[in-house]
Structures are given as structure tokens and as C-alpha cells.
């Protein structure tokens, strides 16, 4: 790292190349950074270097979607994060880096379209997006750029380029159509590489005679026609490659290798009349022959299409007959589709089906979390649960949850579980209830208490209904968050950095519930006593998603979860609030947070002695926003999570500085 008085450079080169074919958005041992790595936290940390001008983080195993927060590095002139494991879309916010002249994001797994954000980037001269999975139309705003490097796997037409361009490198893409005539007007062009694309038709004759052209590579396209109209070549032209195309006729004199000129010319794999055994027969380049083949291919596809339509028609007829035959089941299914959220599957790499992608407006990268370590959901028998709880005896009773009674149990293999006995407000058919439970089982996240399975009371009876179900969750042994804030247990009370870690974990879980489910899972009963801590003090949210089972599907806004989380933040700041007095506390005491004396009086002494003032101020600010009376003024959970992560980073920096001062 180099730091000057007015500039700063950060360059790190690793050895974790991104050349793997089976990367699906999750951490890979010995390839990527660990599962606990957060690219969001990394970028937040980097944004504190507000004078950073050069950032190069190459082959480090960085993984995750590139956060839009990268735009906060407003002084950045060069950004190179190539050969890592980033995926998703390239954030539009990069366009705010108006000083950027070099952007290199090679060798990644970006799989969305190229964003149309080049207009504000008047200083951008080098763009390299090689070896990605980008798709869609190439944006017209790219014409503002004065130098382009090749970007593998693009699928778009070549756009017009500015007349001042000197180097155009667009090889190994999926460009199609003809080379625009405007290319022959780029009088400053010196180096043009359009090889390995799908370009067709004859190239503009003026390309060969541009006054400054020295390198011209058109190899491995489908360019055709005769080059007889190429009357002369530019004086500086030293290399020409037109091999592996469909050119016919003879070479122009200025490209004849037998002439006195010293330029290098490659032309194998065409149908040229030059007596070269490495040319193809005329039939290979015959356009009429290709038209016949295309015509035959079109006929075949028409026949296939007609047969396909007939098959679809027969399937529809069969489906309609089945619908009428099972009218009652149909009503039930339709009702369920309108009331129960569609849960995104996490077993697939992206976590999102093509149908969902086509219909959803926003899919957060939180929905791309992979399958967790928690065992898969299974069906328990009532005998198993009875044995695990000694017939649901009082000694195994844990208490009343937000919904249902909770029992601790032990399975035959010695593992502990928690069983929620849930009496439903109405009776469901077994089929209906199983669909709901299956949806609940799809909610998997490191900071959600694992759902292990269920048992439906009366399932053994045919065509029966049930008004009771047992939900089986993993057992979390270290108590709830509220207990770790109480002075009643001074040996267990959490310091400020530990409280921030808990809050960040739960914010990630709720963010997932808001973005990993369509429609979002709201009303998740956010309370400090519903946040459990395991033996490693990892926070996990319980009592989430129960509205799927209870049909408590009121139109509750996501902002209500934000409001509830605001009270969790508040308790993390001041300690447990007496039940029922939270509103009164807000009205009478919240304004006191604005003064130093007020903080000393209200904030938990443990927090005051273990926090930095900047970190504390960040959390107080986001707390005030979360508990705003107006829902529209409350932040999203993405904003909440970002602020908490920022507060944690500020706190970590402060703690590190204090240790350094103490050591000196």
C-alpha cells in the first residue's frame, strides 16, 4: 500500500484464481475466502479511505455481489478487482465514480446485462470485462469510452465509437451483424481486434486504408464476399489477419504476401483463389448453399413447432378435465396460492427460478444464500416426539412461546430439540397443511433457528383435517438476547461489540426474510426474547414465518418489522425495557439521546464503558429512524444492516487503536 499526502494506492495480488466451472455463489474451500467473509463489510471498510485513488484487489478469493457502496470511494481513478468470485450484476452506482479512468472486472461471474451507465464517466478510457457471463444488449452510452478491451461472453451488436478512439479490442465475444461503415472513418484508430465473433458480410474497404491503422484482426468470424474493392492499404498497416472467414476471389495486391511489402498477412481457412491448399472449397463459402440449409432448418423447426403446439393443446385439455374432476381440491389450491408466500428455493445456485425472476421486481442477493448446515426437514412421528419429551411431561416444558407451547426433547441419537405444540385457529386438510409446512422448511439462513421437521396430529387418517401440528426446531443452549442484557446475570452480560454482532446477525436474517421470499415474510415477531444465542454466541431468530402456518396473513408492511427491530436496538442500548412501557419510554426519553448528559443517564453503563462515541452515535441514529411513527420514514433492512456493519467497523477500529496506544 502506498500513501502520499494527496493520494493513496492499495494494491494486493493473491493466488486464488477464479478459474472454476462449478462456482454457484457460495464459498469454496481453498478457492474463496471463508463463509464468514462479507464483501459488504470489506467495501464499507475501504470507503473510510476517502483519498484512495488506486484500488487493485486481484485473485484474493473475494466472493459475493459487488456492493453499490463502492461509489463512496469518490476519488477512485483505477479499480481492478479481477480474478475473484463476484457474481450478480455490476452495480449502477459505479457510474458515480466520475474520476475513474480504468475499470477492470475480468474473470468473474457477473451474469446480468451490462448496465447503461457510461454517460457520466467521461474520463473512462479502459474498460475490461473479460471472461464473465454478461448478456443482453450493449448500452449505447459505451460510445463515450475512448478505449475498449475485450469482454468474453457478451451478446450484443457493435455500437458506434467516438472518432478519437485509438484502440478497440473486442475479441472473443458474441458480436453479430455487419461491421459498421463508420469504423472506416476512425482516422485515429491504430489497433482493431474483432476476432472470434459472429460478424457477417463484407468488411468496410476503408478499414484497410485508415491512415494510422497498424494492426487489424478479423479472424474467426463469418465475414464473406470479395476483397476486390480494397484498392490500397494504409502505410502503417503491419499486421492483417482475415483467416477462418468466408472470403472469396483473390487477395488485393496490398495484401499479397508475394509482393514487396513487409506486412504480415494471415488468410487461411477462406475460399480464396490463391492456389493454397489451406483454403476451403467454393461450396463452403457459397451464400446460396447456406440459405438452402437455413431454409431446410426453418422447415424442420416449423414442423417441430406445430407438433409442440399440438402436444401443448392435448396437455391443456387433459389439465382442464382434471381440474373439473377435482373441483374441491382446486378451490383449496387456489386459495393457498393467494394467501401463502412463494418461498425461494435455496437448493439451486442462484436460489431463484426463471419464473420468479421473470415476475419479481427486486430479488436481493440475500436470496442467493446456499443450503445451510442445518439438517434437512423431515416428518416426525407422534411416537418419536412423545418419547423425546417423556409424554410431554412438565419437566420438559420450556414455557409459552409467542405462539404455542414449547417443550425440550431428546432424540434417540442424543441430540436435543425444541418442539412447538401449535393449536391452529382453524382446521386444515392434511394436504393443505403439508404445503404450508414445506414452504416454512425452505426458510434457511445461518441466523435463523433451524426448522428440523414436523408432526401433524391425525395425519394417519385418510382425508382428515387437523387443528394441531408440532414443529421441531434445533435446540439453542445459551439463552436469549434479553437475558444477556440483564444485570441479573452480570457474568453473561454482553459488551457493546458483542451486542453489535448479535444485532448484525439478526438484521441479516430479517433482511433474508424480506428479500428471500415472494411476497416478503413480514410480521416475524421480533423481540429480544425471540433472539437465541448458541454456545458460540451466534445469534439466531426464532418464531419467524409462523404466519405461513397460522394463516395470520394480514397485510402487514415490512416497515412494521423495522419498527419492532427498533425496539431491539433500543434494548441493546439501554437494557431490557419493561413490557408494555416501550411507547411511554420513547415519548419521554428518546430526546435525551441527543445530549451527552442524556446518554450518560439512559444508556446501559456496560455499553458506555465498552463503546466508541462514533459507533454509539451511528446506532442511536438508526434506532431513531426505525421507531419513527410514520412507516414511510423508516429505513429498509438493507439500510439498517449497512449502518450496523459500519458501526461495528468503527468500533473495531477504535478498539484496535486503543490496544496500539496501550502497547506503546
TrEMBL record:
Q: Which PROSITE patterns does the entry mention?
A: PROTEIN_KINASE_DOM
Tell me the superkingdom of the source: Eukaryota
Compartments (UniProt record): Membrane
Gene3D superfamilies this protein is in? Phosphorylase Kinase, domain 1, Ribonuclease Inhibitor, Transferase(Phosphotransferase) domain 1
Which keywords does UniProt give here?
Answer: Glycoprotein, Leucine-rich repeat, Membrane, Repeat, Transmembrane, Transmembrane helix
Q: Name one GO cellular component term.
A: membrane
Main localization is membrane
Report the transmembrane regions from the record: 300-324
InterPro entries in alphabetical order:
Kinase-like_dom_sf, Leu-rich_rpt, LRR_dom_sf, Plant_LRR-RLKs, Prot_kinase_dom, Ser-Thr/Tyr_kinase_cat_dom
Cite the Pfam families for this sequence: LRR_1, LRR_8, PK_Tyr_Ser-Thr
GO MF assignments: ATP binding; protein kinase activity; receptor serine/threonine kinase binding
> PANTHER family this protein is in?
LRR RECEPTOR-LIKE SERINE/THREONINE-PROTEIN KINASE-RELATED, PROTEIN KINASE DOMAIN-CONTAINING PROTEIN
Question: What is the protein named?
Answer: Protein kinase domain-containing protein
Organism of origin is Mikania micrantha (bitter vine)
